[in-house]
Amino acid sequence: MTKSTRILAIANQKGGVGKTTTALNLAVGLSAMQRRVLLLDLDHFKQINDQHGHDVGDRALREIADLLRKRLRRSDQIYRMGGEEFLVLMPDTSLEQAGTLAEQLRCRIETLEINTAASPTRLTASIGVTRMTGPEESFDTLLRKADQNMYWCKEQGRNQVRAL
């Protein structure tokens, strides 16, 4: 089974964003020039759940989903891939524009305060951005490239963007 077919559907009560099966269908229909992908992973998210409980973690995911919906264009498609990972498909966007937007999102996430019983806590995100380089490239390959860029950010200390 490929990664794109294993992507989990969004829990609307948690994230309120689209279903990833739709993402796959949409991505397949886009030309290579239109396919830009942003893969966002919340850094150390397990600590939020462990230290503050799953209710706070769920609230944090909703706040991130709200932030993404407010900051992205209507044409951009947002999906939760499960856990603390979000996928954004950005049609008609250059890699440079997608990277700039990812950096703006990263900065906004970094300043977002999640209220807890003890005190507000903050999150950071590692974001991998990539583009389809040719019509023969599969959606799985596109996801793999975004994933590699995101993991590069994690290896470099987290809270970064890499657009290649």
Feature tags:
five-stranded mixed beta sheet, single chain, alpha+beta, about 160 residues, about 20% strand, disordered N terminus, two-stranded antiparallel ribbon, Alpha-Beta Plaits, 7 strands, elongated
Describe it for me?
By secondary structure, the protein is of the alpha+beta class. 45% of the residues lie in helices and 20% in strands. It is elongated, with a radius of gyration of 15 Å.
Percent of sequence in beta strands: 15-25%
Compute the separation of the termini in Å: 26 Å
**Number of continuous helical runs:** 6
Q: What are the secondary-structure elements, in order, as H or E?
A: HHEHHEEHEEEHE
- Give the radius of gyration: 15 Å
Strands of the widest sheet, in order across it, are 2-3-1-6-7
Structural class by SSE content: alpha+beta
Q: State the helicity in percent bands.
A: 40-55%
Rough shape?
A: elongated
**CATH architecture type:** 2-Layer Sandwich
The CATH homologous superfamily is named Reverse transcriptase/Diguanylate cyclase domain
SSE blueprint:
Blueprint lengths: L2 H4 L13 H10 L6 E7 L2 H8 L1 H18 L5 E6 L2 E5 L5 H17 L1 E2 L6 E2 L2 E7 L7 H17 L5 E3 L1
Parallel strand pairs: 6-7
Antiparallel strand pairs: 1-3, 1-6, 2-3, 4-5
Gist of the model:
The protein is 45% helix and 20% strand. The chain is of the alpha+beta class and 164 residues long.
